[in-house]
Prior knowledge:
Largest sheet: 8 strands, parallel, barrel
Order of helices and strands: EHEHEHEHHEHHEHEHEH
Number of domains: 1
Oligomer: single chain
CATH class: Alpha Beta
Helix content: 40-55%
Strand order of the largest sheet: 1-2-3-4-5-6-7-8
Number of strands: 8
Shape: globular
CATH superfamily: Aldolase class I
CATH topology: TIM Barrel
Distance between the termini: 9 Å
Bound molecules: 2-phosphoglycolic acid
Structural class: alpha/beta
Amino acid sequence: MGKRLYFGSNLKMYKTISQTLDYLKELTERTKDISREEITLFIIPSYTSLEDASRQTDHGLCLLGAQNMGWEETGQYTGEISPLMLNEIGMDLVMVGHSERRHVFRETDEEENRKVKCALEHGMRALLCIGETMEQKEFGISPEILRMQMKIGLHGIDPSFADRIWVAYEPVWSIGVNGIPASAEYAAQMHDVMKDCLKEIFPDAGEQIPCLYGGSVNPGNARELISQKSVDGLFVGRSAWQADKFDALIRDAMEAARAAGK
Ligand code: PGA
């Protein structure tokens, strides 16, 4: 068997509770024959869907995550959701620092660091999202930006938590309807930067941390992206929001990865 591949989707502010439940039911049904030794599948729905989704879903087939989280257990933080609340409904994962959180809601690397730490301390996996803007890319500082986001985002984290850290590289210019997907070659270069930086931060465990690519992943580029040695998985938005299409994309990507010797 090849190495484990990661496939997941962030549903953003799409899908109501009933739509999310239907989607999860169909996705787990369609993909249940794929061995979970080979892949990790995860979905990150809106907050209102999480409790029902968690109850309905076989977490052995599909991990569930929250799109954001407050970094304190309790307190005067109107509008925030605490790790205790996510633990209570059996969340497996917390996504931290999605580009829309950073750029629309102005979150900082220091805040992402607190959230990552808090999710890990409460037994959940943390998916830290990083990525440079087009302007930063044009200045030729993408590696510096990624290194900074990882070094601050993962600062002071006990290495014993490293097996629950995942990182997604999502260049800001590649995300969403106006996004331009990164070429597989460029994604591979940035993933190499990430892998090196992770080894610096966690000398023993860094190599094992999965690095996913996200940003306009689609049926036309998934094969080439996942075939890159340093790309461990695909984090998909729009192309994953219909269960049949996501199932097809996963199978196609798996086949390409295995053909590439992964
Ligand atoms: P997209 O979204 O695949 O629709 O570009 C990616 C993301 O925001 O994670």
